[in-house]
Specification:
With 376 residues, this protein is of the alpha/beta class. The chain has 12 helices and 11 strands.
Length: 376
């Protein structure tokens, strides 16, 4: 049996599930014929990297102290980590699943020390480590030419050194690696693979899906983005498009669901809870306008084209597969309506193109992994 550790995000939003499931599909094909046990660890809860009986779990008790709880908890975690025996220790392979590795203050995220330094740093010489679909997440208006922070550069160099294979999903990540003297393969995000083997049934009566987030993205990043302006734009867009097309909201989390319900009570709201349910839900849609970049990526995997509108450089992984992207401050209702109608005129040829991109990505991932592990 192959035991494969996964550094991932759990129970947050379905986009993380797309990334992870795409990677699991790749690994099942890579080790076809062998039984596989996946060991997922939620990087946002680093202690899940250890069994429940491990002494490191006692550090949680420090959080109940009135003073010094953070320092004592961290001291206990560091001391207990020296006992080793993480859930990854007996794995045959460890994979980080599609994270925005290159981001402001990336060296200060909560999983750097407990997962990368104390576990991966200890195991990487014995157990192969992959970092697949790594990407960037910087404010759109402040894209760096290089890694400016010495701490961030040290961290990125360290994890690139730990990993026998790193693939990146956008050109900014590639450029930043090049400034460090590192050349890495650029392959579309693994979320593109989640619908592999499926093809949307695109018909004129299909929905145009709207994936709506307040302000157009996760963060405003101090870029002067006005939530109200984006809300007004989307309302006007829906009013225009609904004269000729069926419109529905597609939500990734509860916040989006409640926003959609309050946005226009007359429109259908889809809130699928699993990748399979998601693919079933979107399979007869014809186009989409998305604030979630992994909505665009997952839909592209079954041949549905979209316009992606966001606030940061995660857009670059969408433009990498040839889809239209815009910074939210640069759009207006006339522009989006025009591009939507134009996109609807070529949905068949675009579906073929997107599925070809998916097929090429699958081949590239398989080749890179086989070469790294010296598999025939």
């Amino acid at each position: 049996m192959k035991r494969i550790g996964l550094i991932t995000t759990l129970n947050t939003n379905i986009g993380d599930d797309f990334i992870r499931e795409g990677i699991c599909l790749l690994l099942r094909e890579l080790f076809k014929g062998e039984e596989i046990e996946f060991i997922p660890v939620n990087k946002h809860r680093p202690l899940t990297a250890y069994p429940k009986w491990h002494p490191i779990q006692l550090s949680r008790a420090a959080h109940f102290l009135p003073r010094g709880r953070t320092r004592l908890s961290r001291f206990m975690e560091t001391a207990a980590a020296k006992l080793k025996l993480s859930r990854f220790d007996n794995c045959d392979l460890i994979v980080q699943c599609g994270a925005p590795v290159f981001s402001p203050s990336c060296s200060h995220t909560g999983w750097v020390k407990p997962i990368w330094e104390e576990i991966i740093g200890r195991l990487h010489e014995r157990i192969p480590v992959f970092n697949l679909a790594a990407g960037s997440c910087y404010p759109w208006e402040r894209q760096p030419a290089k890694i400016d922070s010495p701490e961030d550069e040290k961290y990125i160099r360290a994890i690139l050194g730990y990993c026998r294979l790193t693939t990146i999903r956008d050109q900014l990540s590639q450029k930043l690696c090049n400034t460090l003297g590192v050349e890495l393969p650029l392959i579309p995000c693994s979320a593109l693979l989640v619908g592999r083997g499926r093809k949307a049934r695109i018909t004129p009566s299909g929905y145009i899906l709207i994936n709506y987030m307040s302000g157009g993205g996760h963060y405003a990043w101090g870029q002067g983005i006005k939530d109200r302006e984006w809300e007004i734009t989307v309302k006007a867009l829906i009013a225009r498009l609904s004269k000729k097309h069926k419109i529905a909201f597609l939500c990734h989390d509860e916040k989006e669901f409640f926003l959609a319900k309050n946005f226009d009570p007359e429109l259908p709201v889809f809130f699928p809870k699993s990748p399979q349910e998601y693919l079933d839900c979107i399979s007869e849609s014809k186009f989409a306008i998305c604030n979630r970049m992994h909505a665009s990526i997952a839909m592209a995997g079954i041949g549905i084209s979209s316009i992606a509108i966001c606030t940061d450089t995660r857009m670059l992984m969408v433009s990498q597969i040839g889809l239209t992207t815009h910074f939210v401050k640069d759009v207006n209702v006339e522009m989006i309506e025009y591009e939507t109608e134009k996109g609807l005129q070529s949905v068949r040829s675009e579906q073929d193109r997107l599925l070809a991109v998916q097929s090429e990505a699958w081949i590239d991932y398989q080749a890179a992994m086989k070469e790294t592990l010296h598999l025939a």
